[in-house]
Amino acid sequence: MGIVVVCGFIALNALAYRHAYTMMHFAEGNERTHEPETLTVWQKAKVLFAGVRIPRPRTTTLISDLGPEARSLELDSTNGVRLGAWYCPGRSEGPLVILFHGYTGEKSGTLPEAKAFLELGLSVLLVDFRGSGDSTGSTTTIGFDEAHDVAAAVRYACAHLPHSPLLLYGQSMGAAAVLRAVHACGVQPDAIIVESVFDRLLSTVRHRFEAMGVPSFPSAELLVYWGGHQAGFDGFSHNPVEYASDVRCPILFLHGGADSRAHLEEARRVFSAVHGAKRFREFSDLGHQSLVRRHPSEWTSTVKEFLVEGRILAGGADRQELH
Predict the structure, then answer these.
(1) Do both 8 and 126 map to the same domain?
(2) Which residue, among 3, 13, 78, has the nearest Cα to 229 in the 3D structure?
(3) Contact 150/168 with Cβ under 8 angstroms?
(4) Contacts of 55 (CB under 8 A, 6+ apart)
(5) Is residue 71 domain-shared with residue 50, that is, in the same domain?
(6) % residues pLDDT > 70 (the chain)
(7) Taking all residues of the chain, what is their mean pLDDT, rounded to a whole number?
(8) Do residues 115 and 66 lie in contact, with contact meaning Cβ atoms separated by under 8 Å?
(9) 100 and 147 belong to one structural domain
């Protein structure tokens, strides 16, 4: 019996190691594992034993879709990483928003949000995280090392793009990277918008197993451990709910009430950890998806009100009126 238990434990660790590797190392080619909810029982069994297959995210959208004045940029991040980016000026040298995409995405995934910001008069900078789009590399750390990419984009903007104030926007993994950049890299924007943020890396990994219809314990814990081990960090310490306490600027939370990847109550825990001016807007009928695509007018009006009250856009009240 003891041998069986030991062998089972070794096998479970081997599977977790494999899953962590395939989730954090992008594959070549175009074949991709579908979302867990769409898989058959046989397909789920195959994924559980072989891991997921996620092709390296590629930018296929034309930069002209962002705007006629848009141009490509290259930014330096840490460890020799080069980041691809698109910049498009707004109607003035006023506010700039830097947009950061989610897991398995790339910069064009934030085009709808970027266009909405442009309509509000802001300039936009869309950034590819390391391993995605036009950036170098082929791995991801689900927002941990990507915090350095956020910091690099802020440094570039401050040095080369004549705009003020500065706003950071992040989706899911991008939201986690923005909050970690504030916590670990000393980034101090004038305002932040986070969309579909998770509270802990362990939580969002657990939800992946739940979507497969299998128990998350202890597989999620092992996957977080081995993923962090492979990437050189403690996966159990990658927690936006802890980073949020260091936010000192106005922050807006946007979240889908039916989000199965980052549950609503988890986002509210991150919100509660912020000590300063903050606002939370729930889109009750939406899941883990681009909120502006489904509810453009509500999304835009919420963002505009936040920017005006936070004095990012002209005509606002004092920042402390946010709540």
Answers:
(1) no
(2) 13
(3) yes
(4) 26, 27, 28, 29, 30, 31, 32
(5) no
(6) 97
(7) 93
(8) yes
(9) yes
